[in-house]
């Protein structure tokens, strides 16, 4: 018996069974959305693996490409019906194991062995592109001295270290960020999962070890994408 669609299920991450409020069997209701989310809403969708309803920002959308393969739609912009999976590597693996896409797309979607790798690569590319956008907007400073100056100004929203940064140097900046954040009654986000080589490419300069992103919509966008990437990698 299939779960109800994300369009008819209640809000919140609650398990969904196969009946409606009147006890009517919902086996004939599909597992896909009817297209792209409505503008101006904060919709929820059904994860086809866990059968729970979650906010779309916690999920990844998948569609069937013209060649019949299931592909990720990380920006949720591609046309057609979409199936949603919680944005965790392990949950996608479970969806593939359960052949959940075949059920959701009524046998029309074909999954390829490299789907999980493709998702990880796209999420990483998206995060790095958003970092480059923040740099273009003038919201990123690099170098130990400039990062300290930015922290002391109270304008930093995100403190970032290359994954190979020396613990001593990163620790001193982290301690300063904590003191400044506590004094201001807010938390300065910390990211240390990107290697220096990727930071160099995204920021267009060599040997980036420490960086700070100032409070700005582009910085918030980068942070949201990094949280999604790190959540994906956590499993």
UniProtKB/TrEMBL annotation:
- YlxR domain: which residues? 45-108
Q: Quote the Pfam families the UniProt record gives.
A: YlxR
- Biased composition of type Low complexity is found at 16-30
**Where do the segments described as Disordered lie?**
1-36
Give the InterPro entries listed for this entry: Ribosomal_eL30-like_sf, YlxR, YlxR-like_sf, YlxR_dom
NCBIfam families from the entry? PRK09190.1 (NF006622)
Name of this chain's protein = YlxR domain-containing protein
């Amino acid at each position: 018996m299939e779960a109800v669609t994300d369009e008819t299920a209640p809000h919140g991450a609650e398990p969904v069974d196969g009946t409606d409020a009147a006890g009517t069997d919902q086996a004939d209701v599909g597992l896909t959305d009817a297209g792209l989310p409505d503008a101006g809403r904060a919709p929820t969708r059904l994860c086809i693996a866990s059968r729970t309803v979650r906010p779309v920002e916690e999920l990844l959308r998948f569609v069937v490409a013209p060649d019949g393969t299931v592909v990720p739609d990380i920006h949720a912009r591609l046309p057609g019906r979409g199936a949603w999976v919680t944005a965790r590597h392990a949950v996608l693996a479970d969806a593939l194991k359960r052949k959940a896409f075949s059920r959701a797309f009524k046998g029309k979607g074909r999954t390829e062995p490299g789907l999980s790798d493709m998702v990880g690569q796209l999420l990483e590319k998206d995060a790095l592109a958003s970092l480059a956008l923040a740099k273009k907007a003038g919201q990123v400073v690099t170098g130990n001295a400039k990062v300290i100056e930015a922290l002391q100004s109270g304008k930093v929203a995100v403190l970032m270290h290359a994954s190979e940064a020396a613990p001593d140097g990163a620790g001193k900046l982290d301690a300063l960020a904590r003191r400044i954040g506590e004094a201001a009654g807010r938390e300065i986000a910390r990211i240390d999962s990107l290697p220096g080589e990727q930071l160099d490419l995204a920021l267009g300069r060599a040997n980036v070890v420490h960086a700070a992103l100032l409070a700005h919509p582009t910085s918030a966008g980068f942070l949201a994408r990094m949280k999604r990437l790190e959540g994906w990698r956590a499993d």
